[in-house]
Amino acid sequence: MASIKDVAAGAEVSVATVSRVLNGHPSVRPDTRTRVMAAVEALGYRPNAVARSLRTQQTRTLGLVISDVLNPYFTELARSVEDEARAHGYSVIIGNADEQPALQDHHIRTLVDRRIDGLLVSPTDGGSPLMLDAVRAGVPMVFVDRWIPGVDVPVVRADGRQAVRDLVAHLYALGHRRLAIIAGPATTTTGSERVDAFREALREHGLPLPDARIGHGDFQAGSGHREATRLLALAEPPDVIFAADNLMALGAMDAIRAHGLRIPQDIALAAFDDIPWFVHTDPPITAIAQPTGELGRAAVRALIDRLDGREPHSAILPARLVVRRSCGEPPAPVTTAPAGATPVPTTGVRTTPVTMPPAAAPGSTTPPAPPSPAPTPNRSNR
Questions:
Q1: Are 144 and 263 in contact (CB under 8 A)?
Q2: Which residues pair with 2 in a beta bridge?
Q3: DSSP type of residue 340
Q4: Three-state DSSP class for 144?
Q5: 118-121 vs 91-96, strand pairing mode
Q6: What is the pLDDT of residues 286-339, one digit of tens each?
Q7: What is the pTM of this model?
Q8: Are 285 and 271 in contact (CB under 8 A)?
Q9: What's the pLDDT tens digit per position in 261-279?
């Protein structure tokens, strides 16, 4: 097996230069780096990671504990974390907590025992004793997406409050008045924050949010189906279901269709956490999009700042509303009537252009085709 001395001899450089190249040191000239890496490849040299970590007290490895690897949001987040970490010379070990605090603790314990240099965590609950012990022990850590209030750890997250206000304003303009939400676990910051933002936005429009129209989900599709089924069984079912994450939205969509209802003609559907699939659903789903890739990259940069002795900073990035067709078409603009004409009231009525049938040709015995029927109005406008 080739040694670092063999690489140095093959590249005609010192052992120290080989070490600087392998550690990504910026002081090495490009031609020297190329020569060293060619020797590494030709000799099949593989650095001894264990020996290097004992010598440098670094493994060049970060741990990432995410809440649910099957959720496309966290899949994209993990990918951006890996890409950014690799650009800084780090590898990433990923642990999937599957929204279970005990499994989250298992991954944190395992990663710390393996001497990772730092941890990125999206907490599944309000904070376990093991995680808090790791913070107190000085394990470099950054919270991403979710956080634990009162714990002195940098947080990189999105602020969805303005996007939720934009969503409610959009729904209100479409004539929807009975709005419901399927929330995530109240023990998570994202679960409680999204309900609070939704309630606050409804209040701005003078709309209530009774307890009956708050579904209690767990960020999984099954809970979205269950809570949507309950909401649809209410004496006054909602005009809109807003699911606080993408998987619960897909479960709610299945429940709506199981009841023989149409989206958006009979009920509207919106989601937090946009995903690529939402463009391909029928209809495409209106959703709040988080800057997922930038969240992952910013979290890695904050953690590396901590590892390099710089002051890490929290970051809050804005989410945005992506309007599609699952809540209804925007109202048609009101046209100005000619001078002297009697205005026609349009409040609560969606204006639809009427296509006139073609006139029959002179001498023809074929009657003109009847006009197309007007579309059925939304349930919220009935």
A1: no
A2: none
A3: T
A4: strand
A5: unpaired
A6: 999 999 999 999 999 999 999 999 999 999 999 999 999 999 976 554 444 444
A7: 0.72
A8: yes
A9: 999 999 999 999 999 989 9
